[in-house]
Amino acid sequence: MDPFELMKARHSVRKYANRPIEAEKVAILQAEIDEINEKAGLHVQLFTEEPEAFRAGKAHYGVFKGCRNYFAMVGPKDADEAIGYYGEKLVLLAQELGLNTCWVALTYKKGKVTAEIAAGEKRHAVIALGYGEDQGVPHKSKPLDKLAEVREDSPAWFRRGMDAALLAPTAVNQQKFYFKEHGGKLTATAKLGPYAKMDLGIVKYHFELGAGADHFTWA
Q1: How far apart are CA 34 and CA 26, in angstroms?
Q2: Would you say 130 and 21 are in contact if contact means Cβ atoms under 8 Å apart?
Q3: Is 35 helix (H, G, I), strand (E, B) or coil?
Q4: What is the pLDDT of residue 31?
Q5: Taking Cα atoms as reference points, which of 111, 41, 115 lies closest to residue 76?
């Protein structure tokens, strides 16, 4: 599927149907996880039919319903950006498989997640996974000039990359990032904000999909 179509179709979903994920889809996701862990030195883990992490508790923003599947985004303590980058790769793969997702940092029962965490690692977040009761809704975005330095002579690939970056999910929709491009060299920085470094990884993955990684190098 076209990456832009995937990014436009994917929205955060918090209510899930009582429908298991097919074994063949689990196998595809697990194969991708194995490749990511080997390549990036992460310790991402997939849990299916495990409802305890999202058992409804007190009512608050972001409460979940019916979620029994999730990715545990485990990795080195300083791997925030890599967690975001590769986690979003899994998110869009899930979307391509017809599944729904939601990045979750706070509103789940951390003590009920039985992920393995080695010395020097931590659980950065989890990503809810499954068949949503609906497809979610688009998030609002800040104006482009608040998120990037766009000039009259900015190349078309940079504009496409920013179109993709604007579709990226960020914690509480904060969009605490800023992109600059000069002569094919690209910088992307994270401003102060909760989970901003992890968000930057998510946004960078979107940008690469939109721009095409062969058009630039990260400065």
Answers
A1: 12
A2: yes
A3: helix
A4: 98
A5: 41
